[in-house]
Amino acid sequence: MIPPQGKTPSAIQPAPRNQINKRLLTTILVLGFVSGLPFLLTLSTLSYWLAEVGVTNTTIGLFMLVSLPYSFKFLWAPLLDHVQIPILSSYLGIRKSWILLMQGGLVLSLVAMSYTNPHKDITYTALAALCVSFFSASQDIIIDAYRIEMVQSREKGAAAALETIGFRFGMLASGAGALYLATIFDWKTAYFIMAIAVGACILITLTIKEPTLKLSVVGKSPFSSEKNDHSNSITIRERFHVYASPFKEFAYRDKLLYIILFIFCFKLADTVLNAMSAPFLCDIGFSKLEFAAVSKIFGISLMVMGGLIGGVMIHKMGIYQSAIMCTVLQSLSCLMFTIQAIIGYDCSVLMITVGVESFCSGLTSAIFIVFLSEFCC
């Protein structure tokens, strides 16, 4: 990864040997919350909004397309490593400056989304939701890069677990929090308050430390905001090389297709459930408050527990054995929704369904983060 040019704040000092850097892990926890805050606003929370105003399940299913930036964010991830934001990157560093820019885009997109009416013109809602997904996915790129650059090997399991916990608390705010706000006020107010909450995260971002990296052999990026004597001689081929170099330097590029297929299959069920569980439960007869209390508060609490146990599993069993076990558990947990569909409206069964699925989701998410991070080191 290309380091930031210009002045950057000093990085968090590495902890002494065999000692966990608690300050850094706290930062990872907070950034996990920041990353998770906008996540459900284009998935289950939005799906429930659409179902409530009478949008068909087919259309709601097609709304999964607005979450595509989360799947294709690797395409512009190299640009976020090389491109510097004029002036801002020189003072804050490339990581912090990009996070701030994405958070600003999130605020504007959520405000725009709050003023849309999916019942009258669903196209504007879709466009606003797509912008939210793009800025949120881009923010995740930078936060993941920050964690990989800052965390040492002995802290990987703890960092992954804490990031997952923070992410789940962010989901709690955008899930149960937004649903409660929509019940008390309306959907417009709920999304507007979520925009304010994301805006408050800008203050959190300003307090974190910027990673300090040694300059790589590539040297200064051709996309740097700083002018140099050779800036006019940079060819399109050289710019493409800078963009493509992370893919060329990827140590596992001969297995890239298998890795992509694994990610696709691993996240497919989780993505579908995030988008379609809300209209499914709404059709069965569960209210917003029941959905928020069971699916969000109870469910996300078990996700947090699963994330903690996932971190312990990595430490005790190793990453590959843990990944295999969690893949099997995740596939079995999805079958609980089949049982829910057969039984219908029953809060006791809903708690079991959501509890099993949420616990396995938290468990697999923590392990999934560490598993993919192994390919980035």
How would you sum up this structure, described in words?
By secondary structure, the chain is mainly α. The chain has 16 helices and no strands. It has helices at residues 22-36, 44-52, 57-62, 68-72, 77-82, 88-92, 94-114, 122-150, 156-184, 187-207, 236-248, 256-284, 288-317, 319-333, 336-343, 347-373.
Short description:
The protein has helices at residues 22-36, 44-52, 57-62, 68-72, 77-82, 88-92, 94-114, 122-150, 156-184, 187-207, 236-248, 256-284, 288-317, 319-333, 336-343, 347-373.
Features of the shown structure:
377 residues; mainly alpha; 16 helices; disordered N terminus
Mean pLDDT: 80
Number of strands: 0
Total of helices: 16
**CA gyration radius, whole angstroms:** 21 Å
Helix content: over 70%
- Unreliable stretches (pLDDT < 50, length at least 5) are 1-17, 214-234
**Alpha-beta classification:** mainly alpha
H-E order = HHHHHHHHHHHHHHHH
**Beta-strand residue percentage:** under 5%
Q: Major sheet: size, sense and barrel closure? A: none
First CA to last CA: what distance? 11 Å
Label the overall shape.
globular
